[in-house]
Amino acid sequence: MLGAIRSGRSRRRTAGALTALGALVAAGGTVAQAATPPAATVRPAAATQHRVLFDNSKAETAGNADWIISTSQPDPLGQNPSPSAEKDWTGALSSWGVALQKTGAYALKTLPSGSTITYGTSSATDLKNFDTFVLPEPNVLLSAAEKTAVMQFVKNGGGLFLISDHTGSDRNNDGADAVKVINDLMSNNSVDSTDPFGFSVDSLNIATDNPRAIASTTDPVLNGSFGKVTGSIIRNGTTVTLKPADNAAAKGEVYRTGSSGNTGAFFATSTFGTGRVAFWGDSSPIDDGTGQSGNTLYDGWDDPAGTDAALALNATEWLSGATGSGGGTTSCTAAQLLADPGFESGGSGWTATSGIINTNAAEPAHSGSYKAWLGGKGTAHTDTLSQQVTIPAGCAAQLGFQLHIDTAETGTTAYDTLKVQVLNASGTVLATPATYTNLNAASGYTQRTVDLGAYAGQTVTLRFTATEGSKLQTSFVLDDTALSVS
Q1: How many angstroms separate the CA atoms of 240 and 263, rounded?
Q2: 86, 183, 251, 438: which could form a disulfide with 407 (CB 3.0–4.6 Å)?
Q3: Sign of CA dihedral 22, 259, 230, 6
Q4: Is 134 in contact with 55 (CB distance < 8 Å)?
Q5: Number of other residues whose CB lies within 10 A of the CB of residue 273
Q6: How far is CA 351 from CA 146, 343, 346, in A?
Q7: What pLDDT, in 10s, does the model give residues 99-130?
Q8: pLDDT above 50 for 214
Q9: Which residues is 478 bridged to in the sheet?
Q10: Cβ distance 67 to 91 under 8 Å?
Q11: Which of 211, 218, 213 has its CA nearest to residue 238?
């Protein structure tokens, strides 16, 4: 849906719904049977609840969007601990959230605005603590680290629900709409950028259509416990193009009128690693018409032209049942991963500029006899120190080291730098999570830490790169390193 034309879209959607109703009546069909999505069965609390995280960190409430399950974030139970109706929670996705909550089988949270998507950290909203992650029409590009986190989460067994909108639906005017955000996630990440899910989002603005589901009595998304799915609605949306040659698991579940096969899939599913992925080409079907004051909303959730409630809930059920460690279900054995972390074996396991691992008394070690002394030349110069490591899937990971910096530089300009970098197998720098300069000079050593949980499940190279300018020296002295996982 396009926020700028939201009020006009409500009229179009209503017209589409009336057209569908008229067609049903003319055909002698029973409108009530076609229109009413099956009610969610209220079940006793499950012994192990499915944990679902809804994103609100990517401008999901910009413009007329209100894609949240509740204004109480991260925990919707703070607004109402026992919701029974959609208005017990505030947000255009409240019907979705309340329906899941009433089953007793789901534990729901929201990643609030201003937060960062992470995987493998100690944060309570880290993806390792969830089985399914819902991205409802994201309007901000994910950072490199966030894309790594999401892709690794899915690869290790998590469920990912991607909900797009039509091309040009840039609600916060930052140059990125949901089409661009989702395609960028799939095609520009450090885990697998070779069409990992087997589909790409089409740059389309389909004004209105009532897509139909494929014929199936066994597909779990179309025949889940929340009811039979017969179709959905498009009220300014898009589709995906399937590429089964890239991922044979890619499957169209609901198709735009006149489409089939690899084109025009409005709702699609796939797998990646041990995780599962679902895609929906419009936010209209998840909009329940309620929400925060000031938003122009429309009830697509209950639109009689589709069975959108059943589709959303069945898909969530399917995504949350993936096997693997995406939600942190696989235990992590605590360990320290670096070889020769204190350099007392002369740097065994490290790749370093010649001579920087030494016992020179001019820069004493933090402990023992050896340390790594980068820089200190006073001329234009670069030193590097690196080691390749494999961080186990499902682990939190933290790089720690003792760092001493002394310098002959004066003033407030950062002339000389030490960068902590993460590289992939091809030598491409994935991230520079920390940088220190001559301005950080101080007597003695300081303990430094860098969070590397986003790289769980990957083999990466950790590299320290010291770069000096052409005049005065700055020494970056490292000792007692550790890459701790837990």
Answers
A1: 7
A2: 438
A3: negative
A4: yes
A5: 22
A6: 28, 12, 11
A7: 999 999 999 999 999 999 999 888 999 999 99
A8: yes
A9: 372, 403
A10: yes
A11: 211
